[in-house]
Amino acid sequence: MEDLKRLEEFQAKIDKGLKIEPKDWMPEKYRLQLIRMMSQHAHSEIVGMLPEGNWITRAPSLRRKAILLSKVQDEAGHGLYLYSAAETLGIDRKELLNQLHTGKAKYSSIFNYPTLTWADIGAIGWLVDGAAIMNQTMLARGSYGPYSRAMVKICKEESFHNRQGYEIMLSLCNGTPEQKEMAQDSLNRWWWPSISMLGPSDAESVNSDDLMKWKVKLESNDAIRQRFIDRTVPQADFLGLTIPDKDLKFNTETGHYEHGPINWDEFFNVIKGNGPCNKERLQTRVDADRNGQWVREAALAYAKKRKEQEVTA
Ligand code: BYC
Hints:
about 0% strand, about 70% helix, Ferritin, mainly alpha, binds benzoyl coenzyme A, 13 helices, 2 strands
């Protein structure tokens, strides 16, 4: 009876558009859904550093290198905000990382594809960060206070990432025929994974109903995907590039682009761990964790020593 009343009050608060804060009562399922989603998001940020980090030493100029370094560092920062925000739900960061390393927790499908050329850095900023912003500006209005506030800063930085990616594509498209071809090849490889990273179709999305009822998500996966496509197709036109979808057409009645079928078999195969780079990505994270162990131990030992000195002083 008590729980039912609390549940009604909780839902009423959400329906009024109020935020839920860490010390507020919340249903266990809400807490677990947020941990699942926020940790998946945090893991995506730090795994997402790997495909781009791959090009820092090969950036074509000092300017490009400085920008890319800064972007990759931003992603580490996003991971930190998100792990901290997830910890407000009563779970330890060590446990979250353990879930990543053992394959229990997912991270975004998109980072299981390789970055084969410099144009891929442009395509990631333009398409991957572009898709992420579409989703995250919506999440910034979500019901859980710490998550929604983390999103505000993350979205500002993602906007810069998105522009730097588009600017790389623009430079390549205004360059030599070989450079333009490289940009087109990159779009060909990143388009479909960027479309599918926004999650399975609404008919297949198992978590959307709960998340939308609780206003963690305010829009469905398909709605955000449509918005992303509508915004991105004219940008491809401006670059003089062709979206690799022969069924893509503008519907003058709805005012939206209609797209061809998405290969969901490929998507589900990737999130099951069978994408081109899953094993490599996970192993790199496991190794980084192991190699950083002594740094964490030294930092903790130093903090402990300082505390002891303060007590005896
Ligand atoms: N990859 O019920 P659904 C970035 C899973 S990083 C892997 O629709 P939901 C960036 C889903 O977890 C951007 N798995 O789920 C960083 C679920 O499985 P479980 C990352 C996926 O939660 C560095 C199952 O499929 N952004 O911007 O309602 C450099 C059914 O899906 C994916 C976020 O993580 C996927 N793509 O909706 C550059 C945002 N999609 O957990 C850029 C936060 C679905 O039940 N997350 N699955 O076993 C979300 O907004 C939502 O979780 C999703 C999925 C829209 C991703």
